């Protein structure tokens, strides 16, 4: 998907890892070694070189010193990392801050930066507590994930189990094609691959290996040099007039999309899920990939089709979802590929003559990408078709669900609630101003004339005689 500001595309670590011994949590005692597991310390982060409060999750010995696996309290898990003991120091007590009172709210930059204007009273003031509706709206705007205590009891158990199992990244780096990529999250690769510091992946079939020489032997005989399934879309390189894409990782090149059936290409799709789990925290890993179709986006050159991202969707969704999971690999982010995949999912919805919406919950980056796409598409429709359209009209033209249209227009303050209905309240000038403000050279249009695809139809197999 669209990249976050803290994406680390190129790995900085070496390909090996020293002999280490991992320690599990023990009772707190001396302020060094495994005794500080579970405590908060001041840690110097590698992503910005600054000190941040972090929780110590694990410790291991490397020679005569310790390394600690830390989670930065105000940041996403994707930045968790191992640090040498020299980068870890005791947390000095300070005057209580908003972080001490409400860590979940304080971790939101827009709230923390505005605390001087009184927004901190949302957390501190008894007379200014948020209503449930306000809280939902606040969380949606700022991408605050639901707290475990707010879930149903059975979901609390599953979430705590998930957090415990995935709190420490098992694989730190992968090599995919010409890129070495730092991973973000835990992924349940099978043993002995799950305990490797670095994995080597074939970018064509996604098989994974522990050693580069094994990968090279595989590449010498791997064919075809593209994903399995049917190529349903191919676009020519971007013209000079449209401008080149800003990142050298994504040159103006031919793009191709393959539709891969989870039932027909089970191993490839399972490997794709394992790869994506390294960069998606709450993705459910489906070993049963049969009910899904996977749409794999590739850059094409004389060396083959190089995967840059994908999205999946259920073959039959009772809730009208047109997308289940979406990912742009880190080296290819910030080049418009995330929005391209979102646009592509809605082009499929148009072919199906159905209104679609992504499966919830969305990740933080997914939320940003979808909000950007919906806003752009809605404003462009109002600009091209006129401002007198109703929400239903826009939904029929774009295949965007009405609820998504309403929330997008609310964020722009372009909608009012009148006599029980949401009414678009906008002028031509306002639409033009908004359209100019969202112009993005990285937006890659999907040429519907190059999409060769028919909606999936399920043909039931006849049951063998004597079976029901």
TrEMBL record:
<dbReference type="GO" id="GO:0008270">
    <property type="term" value="F:zinc ion binding"/>
</dbReference>
<keyword id="KW-0863">Zinc-finger</keyword>
<keyword id="KW-0805">Transcription regulation</keyword>
<keyword id="KW-0012">Acyltransferase</keyword>
<dbReference type="InterPro" id="IPR036388">
    <property type="entry name" value="WH-like_DNA-bd_sf"/>
</dbReference>
<feature type="compositionally biased region" description="Basic and acidic residues">
    <location>
        <begin position="231"/>
        <end position="245"/>
    </location>
</feature>
<keyword id="KW-0479">Metal-binding</keyword>
<dbReference type="InterPro" id="IPR016197">
    <property type="entry name" value="Chromo-like_dom_sf"/>
</dbReference>
<keyword id="KW-0808">Transferase</keyword>
<feature type="domain" description="C2H2-type">
    <location>
        <begin position="200"/>
        <end position="231"/>
    </location>
</feature>
<dbReference type="InterPro" id="IPR016181">
    <property type="entry name" value="Acyl_CoA_acyltransferase"/>
</dbReference>
<dbReference type="GO" id="GO:0005634">
    <property type="term" value="C:nucleus"/>
</dbReference>
<feature type="active site" description="Proton donor/acceptor">
    <location>
        <position position="359"/>
    </location>
</feature>
<feature type="domain" description="MYST-type HAT">
    <location>
        <begin position="166"/>
        <end position="455"/>
    </location>
</feature>
<keyword id="KW-0539">Nucleus</keyword>
<comment type="similarity">
    <text>Belongs to the MYST (SAS/MOZ) family.</text>
</comment>
<dbReference type="InterPro" id="IPR040706">
    <property type="entry name" value="Zf-MYST"/>
</dbReference>
<dbReference type="GO" id="GO:0006355">
    <property type="term" value="P:regulation of DNA-templated transcription"/>
</dbReference>
<dbReference type="InterPro" id="IPR013087">
    <property type="entry name" value="Znf_C2H2_type"/>
</dbReference>
<dbReference type="InterPro" id="IPR025995">
    <property type="entry name" value="Tudor-knot"/>
</dbReference>
<dbReference type="Pfam" id="PF01853">
    <property type="entry name" value="MOZ_SAS"/>
</dbReference>
<dbReference type="Pfam" id="PF11717">
    <property type="entry name" value="Tudor-knot"/>
</dbReference>
<dbReference type="GO" id="GO:0004402">
    <property type="term" value="F:histone acetyltransferase activity"/>
</dbReference>
<protein>
    <recommendedName>
        <fullName>histone acetyltransferase</fullName>
        <ecNumber>2.3.1.48</ecNumber>
    </recommendedName>
</protein>
<feature type="region of interest" description="Disordered">
    <location>
        <begin position="231"/>
        <end position="250"/>
    </location>
</feature>
<dbReference type="InterPro" id="IPR002717">
    <property type="entry name" value="HAT_MYST-type"/>
</dbReference>
<keyword id="KW-0007">Acetylation</keyword>
<keyword id="KW-0804">Transcription</keyword>
<feature type="region of interest" description="Disordered">
    <location>
        <begin position="1"/>
        <end position="33"/>
    </location>
</feature>
<keyword id="KW-0862">Zinc</keyword>
<dbReference type="Pfam" id="PF17772">
    <property type="entry name" value="zf-MYST"/>
</dbReference>
<dbReference type="InterPro" id="IPR050603">
    <property type="entry name" value="MYST_HAT"/>
</dbReference>
């Amino acid at each position: 998907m669209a990249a976050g500001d803290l994406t680390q595309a190129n790995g900085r670590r070496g390909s090996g890892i020293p002999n280490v011994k991992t320690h599990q949590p023990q009772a707190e005692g001396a302020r060094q070694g495994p005794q500080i597991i579970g405590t908060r310390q001041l840690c110097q982060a590698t992503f910005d070189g600054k000190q941040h409060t972090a929780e110590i999750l694990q410790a291991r010995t490397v020679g005569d010193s310790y390394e600690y696996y830390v989670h930065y309290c105000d940041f996403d898990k994707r930045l968790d990392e191992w640090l040498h003991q020299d980068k870890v120091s005791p947390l000095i007590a300070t005057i209580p801050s908003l972080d001490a009172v409400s860590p979940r709210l304080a971790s939101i930059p827009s709230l923390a930066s505005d605390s001087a204007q009184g927004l901190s009273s949302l957390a501190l003031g008894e007379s200014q507590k948020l209503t449930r509706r306000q809280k939902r709206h606040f969380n949606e705007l700022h991408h605050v994930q639901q707290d475990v205590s707010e879930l149903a009891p059975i979901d609390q158990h599953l979430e705590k189990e998930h957090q415990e199992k995935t709190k420490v990244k098992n694989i730190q780096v992968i090599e995919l094609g010409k890129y070495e990529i730092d991973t973000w999250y835990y992924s349940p690769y099978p043993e002995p691959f799950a305990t490797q510091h670095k994995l080597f992946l074939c970018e064509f079939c996604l098989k994974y290996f522990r050693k580069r020489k094994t990968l090279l032997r595989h590449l010498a005989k791997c064919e075809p040099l593209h994903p399995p399934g049917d190529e349903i879309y191919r676009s020519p390189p971007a013209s000079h007039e449209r401008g080149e894409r800003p990142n050298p990782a994504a040159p103006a090149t031919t793009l191709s999309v393959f539709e891969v059936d989870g039932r027909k290409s089970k191993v490839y799709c399972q490997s794709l899920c394992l790869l994506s789990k390294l960069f998606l925290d709450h993705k459910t890993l489906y070993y049963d990939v049969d009910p899904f179709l996977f749409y794999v986006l590739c850059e094409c050159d004389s060396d083959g089709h190089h995967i840059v991202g994908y999205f999946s969707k259920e073959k039959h969704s009772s809730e009208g979802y047109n997308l289940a999971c979406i990912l742009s690999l880190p080296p290819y982010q910030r080049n418009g590929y995330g929005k391209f995949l979102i646009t592509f999912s809605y082009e499929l919805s148009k072919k199906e003559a159905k209104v679609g919406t992504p499966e919830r919950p969305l990740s933080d980056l997914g939320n940003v990408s979808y909000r950007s796409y919906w806003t752009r598409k809605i404003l462009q429709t109002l600009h091209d078709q006129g401002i007198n359209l109703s929400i239903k009209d826009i939904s029929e033209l774009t295949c965007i669900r009405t609820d998504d249209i309403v929330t997008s227009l609310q964020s722009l303050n372009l909608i009012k609630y009148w006599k029980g209905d949401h009414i678009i309240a906008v002028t031509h000038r306002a639409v033009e101003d908004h359209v100019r403000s969202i112009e993005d050279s990285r937006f890659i249009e999907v040429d519907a004339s190059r999409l060769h695809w028919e909606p999936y139809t399920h043909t039931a197999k006849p049951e063998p005689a004597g079976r029901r």
